[in-house]
Amino acid sequence: MSKAVVGKAGWTLIGLLIAVVAVLGWVGLAHSPVEKKAIVPPVSVDSSLEPQPPAVSFTDITAQAGIGFVHHSGAAGDRLLPETMGSGAAFFDLDNDGDQDLLLIDSGRLRGHPADAPVVPSLHLYLNDGSGHFTDVSAEAAPADAFYGMGVALGDYDQDGWTDVFVTAVGENRLYRNQQGRLEDVTAAAGVAGDPYDWSTGASFVDVDQDGDLDLFVANYITWSPEIDRKVNFQITGIGRAYGPPNAFAGSDAYLYRNLGDGRFEDVSASSGIRVAHPQSGEPMAKALAVLPLDIDRDGAMDLFVANDTVQNFLFRNRGQGRFEEVGTESGVAFDRNGAATGAMGVDSAHIFDDPDQAIAIGNFANEMSSLYVTSSGRLPLSDQAIISGIGAASRAALTFGLFFFDYDLDGRLDLLQVNGHLEPEINQVQASQSHAQAAQLFWNCGTACRTPFVPVSAASMGDLARPIVGRGATYADIDGDGDLDVLITQNNGPPRLLRNDQAIGHHWLRVALQGSAPNREAIGAELMLTLGDRQLRRRVMPSRSYLSQVELPVTFGLGAAQQVTSLAIVWPDGTRQEVVDPALDEVLLVRQREEKAN
C-alpha cells in the first residue's frame, strides 16, 4: 500500500488534516529506473476504427453455487492493522476427481481483541461437483483450527499425488497434508510454523534448488503486536484512530524452507540470501505482502519477486542450488519510474505479447498507478510501461490488492484483472475521490490493433464484476467445465463473490493439465509454448499469483478463431522437453511426463 491515503506508509492525504503521520525516508530514494525504448510504442490509430473490448458478462453466482462463507476481520473498534488486510482463496483439486474445489480462509479473533470476541474456524473447504455447484465439506475435511488466517500456498510437497495446503497467519503458520481429500495438520513435524509473533502473508511452494521437490517461501509483513499498533496511534481528523501506516512499524524477514524429502523442511533463510537488511540500521527491510516465482533470466532456475509495501521491491535471482542474489534495483523493479517505493500488494507475471518478453504487474495503493515492468528483448533490466500500456492512468485512483493475468475472452491474449477496495470504512468522509468498496477493473489485451495494448473494459461490459466490493484476494478457475475462466474475489469482513464467466463469443480453447514425474508431480514451474501459425503463446504452471491466493493448476489457452493448433511444447521442471502433436480443440488435455533425463 502506498503513500496516498489512510493507514499506509508515506500516504499523502492531499487536502486533509492529519493529526499524526510520521513519514520515514527510504534508502535509495534517488534511484531511478533505467529508461528503455518501449516494447509496444504508442501508434497513431483512429479511435473510431479501433477494436472494442468484447462484452463478457460475469454473473455473481455465489449463493446459488452453495458458497455461504463470510470473512470475519474481528474488528472491534481498535483499528488494529491486520483487521483491514483481508484473506485469500485457492482453487485446487482437493479430492483428485478433476474438478476445481475451493478453499477460503477466515481470520476472526486477533491477539489483542477482547477475550469474548467470537472465535471462527479458519479453513472453509468446498467440493465442486463439476458443474460449478459447491458443497461445504469443512466439518469432515478440515481441522476446526481457529487462528488469524491470511494467505495460502498449494503444492504436493510429499510426492503422494495429493495437493497439500500451507496457510499463513498473524501468528504461527500451518501446513496441512492432504490425506486423500482430508487435511491433517503436520506443522510441527514439518517444522514450518515460524515464530508465534510473525505476521506472514504471501507464500509459495517452488523448487528453488532444482532437486525436484517443492521448497517453501513464506513472506512476512511487518513486526507487529497490538501494543505496537496502539502505540503508533495513527489518527485522521474527522475519523479519529485509523489503521496505522506500515512505515511506523519495523520490517520483518522472510522464510525459505528447503524440502528434505521425508516430510520435514530445513530453515535455510539465513544462508540462502533472501534476507535483506537496511544498510544503515542493519534491521530487516522487507515489508512483504506477495511473492511470485518466475524465471526472469530464463536460465531454468526459479527466481523470486517479492512485493513490498512502501519499501523497495526485491528480485531474488537464483544463482544455483537455492542461493539467491537480490538484484531489484539494477533490474529496474525496486522502485517506480520516479524512483519512489510504492505500496505494492498483489503481483503476477506473464508473457503478455507474442514474444519472449516477460511482464510483472503489481497492484499498488490509492493514488499510485499499478506497475507493469517489462523486459527488453527478453533481457534485464525491466522498465515500467504502465503508462504507455494503457493501465497507468486508469489504475491510479484505485487501491488495488489482488490482480492477475488471464484470457477472459479466449482470444489468445492475456488480459488483466485488478481487485480494489480501501482500508478505511469512512474514507469517503475525508476524501471524496475515495470509497471503501471499489469496483474491480478489467483491462482487455488488444494486441497491436489499438493505441495502447491494454484497453479498460467499461462497467457495462463486465456484468457483476463491476459491482463495488471491499476486494482483497482474487483467483480463477474453470469451475463449470465450459473452457472459460471464472473468477472469485474475497472481501474483507464480508462474503466473497464467485463470478461465472458467461462469455459466448465462440472462441476455441485448449486446457492443459500436466502430470509430472516424481517428485514434482504437479509440474509446478513447467513452461508451455503453444504455436498458432506465426504466434507463440507462453504460459507457466504457477498457482502462486495475485494477493494471498492461488489459482488453478491447469493452464488455459484461448485460441480465438483458430481451427488448429500448430504445435504444443512443454518444458518440464527438470528441463526435459516434450512435444504434443495435433491436440484437439475445446478439450482438457492431460499430458504425462515421459521418463527421460535432461541433457
Describe this structure as you would to a colleague.
The chain has 599 residues and is mostly beta strands. The chain has one domain (47-592): Methylamine Dehydrogenase, Chain H (7 Propeller), CATH 2.130.10. Helix content is 6%, strand content 32%. The strands form eleven sheets. The chain has a four-stranded antiparallel β-sheet, with no helix packed on it. A four-stranded antiparallel β-sheet has the order 2-3-4-5. Strands 6-7-8-9 form a four-stranded antiparallel β-sheet.
Question: How is the secondary structure organized here?
Answer:
Blueprint: E1 58-60, E2 89-92, E3 101-105, E4 123-128, E5 134-136, H1 138-141, E6 148-155, E7 164-170, E8 174-178, E9 183-185, H2 187-190, E10 200-206, E11 215-220, H3 226-232, E12 235-236, E13 240-241, E14 255-259, E15 265-267, H4 269-272, E16 288-294, E17 303-308, E18 314-318, E19 324-326, H5 328-331, E20 347-350, E21 359-362, E22 371-376, E23 379-384, H6 386-389, H7 392-395, E24 400-406, E25 415-420, H8 427-430, E26 441-445, E27 454-456, E28 471-477, E29 486-491, E30 497-501, E31 508-515, E32 527-532, E33 535-540, E34 544-545, E35 549-550, E36 555-560, E37 567-571, E38 577-580, E39 587-592
